[in-house]
Amino acid sequence: MKQWYESLFENYAHKYDKECYVHGTIGECDFIEEEIARDKSLKIIDIGCGTGRHSIELAKRGYRIIGIDLSGSQLKRAREKAKEQGVKVDFQKHDARTLPFKDEFDLAIMLCEGGFSLMETDEMNFEILKNATKSLKNNGKFIFTTLNGLFPLFHSVREFYESAGKEGGSVCKSISFDLMAFRDHNRVEFEDDAGNKKVLECNERYYVPSEITWLLHSLGYKKIEIFGAKLGAYSRKDKLSPEDFEMLVIAEK
Asked: What is the pLDDT of residues 33-61, one digit of tens each?
């Protein structure tokens, strides 16, 4: 049986590119460049690349990058966009829980819930972190975003999704938050690229900073920093707070 994140992205590439949360690419890539001191010799992996927005933008800027995703439909659109924009990106279909790479990359990015936090168990989410880490060289860097567990302690996740739904194509309904598991449960209503109306029962895991720090320490990272993640404007100046829906994690081996 397919999981919700597999069904969602079966035929949702064009509509996905119109969602409100995918429009911060330029600023996010500016930040990534700063973090690697604009070193074009570095090799990058984009985990959960979707339709390739970060991969393509970084390739345009001269970086060597591989984009991986579980969805064939998203990857097909990514390849089309790369061709349209005149860049070459190696897009590959892989499950982030079982990546075939070992000690290959200087930087791994996993942005906008690129797999991590979508899985149905904590163990599966940890496998994604583990495989991303395995893909990195000994002194590699890992930059990712994930849902901030501090947010639902102070705010209504339902109200947040309802306000965000007005801006994008998909709409979240019947939203509840499970404090014992730190998961939100919601029903997503959307129309796919063929015009078919679909309804999916979804759930995502939120993480508090101490969990992320512990998980990454257990994987051997020496330096772990966590910030607030502002769409299209990542910055080390943004101290994480309960106002941030997402957190930005920067870890170095």
From this structure: 999 999 999 999 999 999 999 999 999 99
**Cα–Cα distance measured from residue 210 to residue 226, given in angstroms and rounded to the nearest whole number:** 10
pTM of the model: 0.92
- Terminal C-alpha separation, the chain: 37
Residue 167 has pLDDT above 60, yes or no: no
Roughly what angle, to the nearest 10 degrees, separates helices 209-218 and 122-135?
50
Token pair, residue 190, equals: 């959307």
CA dihedral 44, 50, 51, 56 (to 10 degrees): -10
Look at residue 194 in the predicted model and tell me its pLDDT.
Answer: 81
Mean pLDDT, range 138-158, rounded to an integer:
94
Q: How far is the C-alpha of 160 from the C-alpha of 200, rounded, in Å?
A: 19
pLDDT of residue 140: 98
The pLDDT, as a whole number, for residue 9 is: 73
Mean pLDDT of 103-131: 94
CB 234 within 8 A of CB 155: no
Instruction: Look at the block and give the residue holding tokens 């959960």.
Output: 48
| Cα–Cα distance, 247 to 199 (Å, whole number) | 28
Do the Cβ atoms of 165 and 159 come closer than 8 Å?
Answer: no
Amino acid at 42: L
Tokens of 70: 């579980």
Contacts of 210 (CB under 8 A, 6+ apart): none
- Contact between 137 and 106 (Cβ < 8 Å): yes
